[in-house]
Amino acid sequence: MTLGPLMVDLVGTTITETEKHLLLKPEVGGVILFTRNFESVEQITRLVDDVHNLKSPKLLVAVDHEGGRVQRFRQGFSCIPAAAVYAKIAKNDIEYARRLAEDAGWLMAIELRASGIDFSFAPVLDLAHGLSGVIGDRAFHSKPVMVATLAYAFMHGMNKAGMKAVGKHFPGHGGVVEDSHVAMPVDHRELDELLQSDIIPFGTMIENKLAAIMPAHVIYDKVDAKPAGYSSFWIENILRKRFNFQGVVFSDDLSMEAAGIVGGFGERAEAALSAGCDMALVCNHLEGAIEASEHLSGYTNPTSQLRLVRMHGEHDINWAQLKKDENWQKISAKITALNDSPEFEMDI
Q: How many structural domains is the chain composed of?
């Protein structure tokens, strides 16, 4: 059996019989977790084990756990600050900011790995243009080189903990006001302008072995009429050919408003995969996930399957071991303290 091209979610803290039937389908290769799936460290660890034990190779288990307002699990987990914290620190000490970002990446990843989770959809590589509320303080900085520097440090920390990184939202969501969860954003910039600004962090991270990328549900109308996640120009011509990216491309959630431009969930999944995505995400819509799995019946892509298996987590560790680790204790205290300092209030 191989990893299928769909990543789906769960409605609660255990797997229902309907969900088990869906997860066992060959078209499904992963599960994304949300806050509603979390009650405690012990419970989430059992849930991940249950997902992993369903079939072989194990389903990928992922979560959006960047830090700041996008951190799905709280109680028992360290509170990771928003990425913009490091921009504040970098004003006075870039090297210290880089070390903190690396420690935060490691801390986030090692705690998720202790619960068995394979990877987090992080880091955000969008620029803080001051336009996008949905990005806001999730961005590391407003300058491309600084984003690349801090995000690389964060990724390096994740990698040390045994977790691959996913850069998002290619080629950059920070230049539009609209939130693609509820609207269809359109960015009117030319390709050359994007290449000289928002795309720079992605190029740098690709050069430094970034494992995966998530395209934005944004139309760049001077470049292509389709949103980036449905665009073979963006995925195949720019990512694969121009930047020689050999990693995984995950679609953003196909239940988002901006993803509805191509029709039902089956058509959305097909459009994302046809454009060059390796795995399509269908979240918060069980019927849509089932529809997509049925629409993709028999779908195979050996190249995508080879890429996806590399996303499994490494360096197995459990919470009992982690709690005894002096390095974890020290880094957790240092990183969580950043949340409480008035010096680091967001103004980006």
A: 1
